[in-house]
Amino acid sequence: MDVFPPLPLEDWRDTKETLHRFLQIVGKIRLAGSPRSNHWWNVPFHLTGQGVTTRPMGPVRGGDSFCIDFDFVAHRLVVRTLAGRQVSFPLAGRSVADFYRDTVTALVALDIDAEPEHPYPYDLPDARRPFAEDHEHRSYDTAAVTRYWHILSQVDLLLERYAAGFSGKTSPVHHFWHTFDIAVTRFSEREITPPAGADPVTREAYSREVISAGFWFGDDTVPAPAFYSYTAPEPPGLADRPLYPDAARWSEARGSHIALLMYDDARAAADPWDTTLRFLDSAYRAGAELTHWERTRECPGGITDPRLRTSPAAG
Maximum CA pair distance of the chain? Predict the structure, then answer.
């Protein structure tokens, strides 16, 4: 299989819209069942060998600890408790309303009290329609979801490699259910005063200066898969800095700029993996140099021991 197989947005848009809402339902259960962590790191999904997981959470109001996994090999949702009880059901053939009902039913069967506090889509066109009433979104193409899972796994490994080159505060590689992207973020220690009127989610996520790197599968704003990077707050002159390769570009987004390397351009490169890593590094350096980040936090190869870094064996 290709490292980065093709997955044009139009080939699976209906399935993606359904799956996105499935992820949001389970993500909101994760939000309800986990203790809050800095920058909302408790909320996103992590990858497993078969799909994505909430990680263990709870207990909630006296119930058992539990975990919810999307199995994208068998295409099932699996809810497990620490005591070994489990309920699972197929992902295909269900509307969002069906999925919501069956997920809540599974929690009740396992004596888990962790329903979403706000059971509505987040930042989607139908944000005012309850999940329980969404009979519109019901597409689930197993081949497309398998392809999504393969790409997600490859990008996860690539971002892990990118993350290893920085020894400062770095997030885990996260699959964000609200925006349907996968990303890793590097932090400086400089505190940021959020703009007036910023919502609580934004205030916590961007309370420090950050340079974030990731990948999304396409949306109405950028209707094709793409790798991206941004610096927040954006320093003056960022969009004038060079990017690698020549196909990469700075794009305006909500009053700031984001570095983009379209997925198909990365796929077309002689070495897609190396090209993408070099793109992310060029975008990081553009932001880090303009904001004067400490170069001592860079650790090529994940090595911080100065003796090993200068040893011939390290190369």
Answer: 63
Going by pLDDT thresholds of 50, 70 and 90, the confidence category of residue 315 is very low
pLDDT at 130 over 90: yes
Structure tokens at 200: 């609580």
- Region of poorest pLDDT, from 48-62, 103-117, 244-258, 297-311: 297-311
Domain ranges across the chain = 10-133, 142-301
CA distances from 228 to 55, 83, 97, 122, 310 (A): 26, 41, 33, 22, 32
What does the pLDDT average to over 167-190?
95
The reply to whether the predicted model has a pTM over 0.90 is yes
Q: What is the pLDDT of residue 54?
A: 98
Predicted pLDDT at 311:
58
Q: What is the C-alpha to C-alpha distance for residues 66 and 86, in angstroms, rounded to an integer? A: 9
Beta strands 174-176 and 51-53, pairing class: unpaired
The closest alpha carbon to 262, from 249, 281, 243, belongs to 249
Q: What is the pLDDT of residue 113?
A: 87
pLDDT tens digits, one per residue of 192-212: 888 788 888 888 888 899 999
